[in-house]
Amino acid sequence: MRSALLVLLIALLLELVVTDEDYYKILGVAKDADDRTIRKAFKKLAMQKHPDKNKDNPNAHAEFVKINKAYEVLKDEDLRKRYDQYGEKGLEEGFQGGNNYQSWQFYNENFGELLRISPLTELCFLFFLSTFYSFLCFLSLTRWRKFARAMEGVVRIGAVNCAEDIVLCQSQNVNAYPSLVLYPSGEFYNGVRDSELLQEFVMQRVTSEVIHLTSDNIEALTTSWQPYDSRPWIIDFCDRSDSCLSSINRRKLATMLDGLVNVGSIDCTSRGGKDLCDVLKVTSGVRYYPTQNVNVEQEKVIAGDEWLTTFSGEDSVEWPTAVWFVNNKETLKERKDYKRLPQLLPDIFYADCSQFMEVCRDLLDITKLPQFVVFKTTGGHEIDYVNKPSYHDVTAFIKESIASPLHVLSVEEYDSALRSGELWIIDYFTPWCPPCLRLVSEYRQLHAVIDQNDQVLSKIKLGLMDCVKYRSICEKAGVQSYPTSALHTQDGRVHKFVGYHSVQSVLENINNALNPAVDELTPADFERLVQNRESDITWVVDFFAPWCGPCQQLAPELHRAARSLRQYSEHVHIGSIDCQAYGAFCREQSVFSYPTIRLFPATTKQRWLKQYYDYPQNMWRNSDTIERWVFGMLPSLVTSLGNDFWHGVLDSDEPWLVDFFAPWCGPCIQFAPVFEQVAKALEGKVKLGKVDCDQWPGVCRGAQVRLLIQAYPSIRFYKGQHDGRQQSVWGLQLQTRDKDEIVRLISEQVEMLSGHDEL
């Protein structure tokens, strides 16, 4: 009994000793060691510590077991992750984690990418988790990793930590964790969280196609049928040896190359397929063929042992070409996942900068090597300044760059662009500036969203000017912050946009420059149009300086407000005056800071108190706020009501539409200009009034506004009293705030009332 107890105690003590050991120290490697280093260290120790070589050491077997266990854990990605987070306790079956597991650790270490939810236009699968439910989320992690590895390059994989942004998750209708959502459709995955089933779920929703080629359709597909005839081909040849790609892998490949390359397959055992295989002299493997050249002479073998070949350094290329600039050839061994890149673009090479450092120094910052560059058929090139090493990021850069005319400008190209008289956008940036790199990505997508039938925008050219490499050029261009974009128009004018902009915002800025909604005024224009304006005209004038950052930020907002106000009324005009060009005039107008926004009102009686009104300093300078401020200063068709609501509306025999609102209510503020538009549309048919429930709480309580809808604004229609009896305070409640819908509903009510009166 004592002997058994002693054995048990020794076993427990041995377990404690092993538990306290550090697996990394056992193998003599650092905690960030890669698989190769760990394998090498284990092999060395195994040779030294093997029991057969240490027969005189009674602990040799135990030591060897310890080394072997450390290696088995650290070589496995999932086991190593659990060991790093929990120690040996995390390796036990049924382990559920502990209270020391931190939110930052789960989120930052377990998931490598956080994506913005809106706008997502490409296929993306998001894992919504909460670190408050870390155990449940952790259980799904291993399967999620396996799925992510299998679908890399096919669909973007990301994670959102709802513990840090609950509002975002609620906006996506995520109320349970973990939740898996496929975008851009926003479809929830409700099946078993198995890697194979997840892949099947995604692949059922991709739109790419694999084309089955035969001797009957090859000619038409490659030379005349659109859009196939304008793309190169990757063809998978299949024979009885089963050496071809699986069906799902073909579809993955087609998804990765969607829009760039046609993916086809040929069954060399079928009658039509065998004839084609004989013509092409291939029966198995994957081949690449250029556009409209599917023939023996043009074929390139894909996925061979030499997956990258050396770049010869030609100045121009016949096809888009990606080059990976590396310090030396040994770098190729570090990124085995890049072996799949030739499937994306067969014209892909490496450039060994140790062989021609002078060329690399001229083209790149060699401290950032390795780095990808895409050479374009136009002779220009684009550098991957973001330089993230993951396969997905590299493929995304190559695919986007090939499809975009955006390229890096040299001094000569920059001077040529300025002299060309063509429509150019030049982006002045620095590679160390994150907003700059985000903007470069937006510019890369610009041509994809431009209407190619637009004779002006379809010809726009895009260039990048590196302000680290060419600092003097950027200083001469007046660039004071990064990024700064300059739109050069055909008439020789330059329009600058400062800061990051989405691709839609870029399009808006271009439209503002080419089709301005804000009039550029001279002092003579100001006197003629503003000071001597007609009595029903309102002017809003922006006094600005081109070098002023807040002025540059205001410009697109003012254009947006101008377009909206123009739709509301032809009697509202927006203008701007350049106080750098007309400094003396601006000083005469008592303008001493920029931007200064002034409203010169229509000369109605209520506006005779002041000649102009300055934009309040405590208000945001965005389009919505500017619009609301201007609307509040315009002559109104809506009557302000108080206690006269009882007699003026309820006792009236005319129809009224009344807006009960509160000045602090956001939706009320947004609805106010809409109500003015409704008043204009219904002028002569219905009277419109508004009641400020903060100023007249008794009226709103009497009308039981709060009891009815619990919120503002409340819009009610009162048909008009009949037979001398006062109308009910309830009226007809409108459940919409859409202008056209309100006008339609009220017009129908008025017609019904008119028909009833005729009877």
TrEMBL record:
Plays an important role in regulating the size of autophagosomes during the formation process. The keyword DNA repair does not apply. GO terms for cellular component: endoplasmic reticulum lumen; endoplasmic reticulum membrane. Keywords: Autophagy, Signal. It is found in: Endoplasmic reticulum membrane. It comes from the Eukaryota. InterPro entries: DnaJ_domain, DnaJ_domain_CS, ER_disulfide_reductase, J_dom_sf, Thioredoxin-like_sf, Thioredoxin_domain. One of its GO terms (biological process) is autophagy. It is a single-pass type IV membrane protein. The keyword Acetylation does not apply. Pfam families: DnaJ, Thioredoxin. This is DnaJ homolog subfamily C member 16.
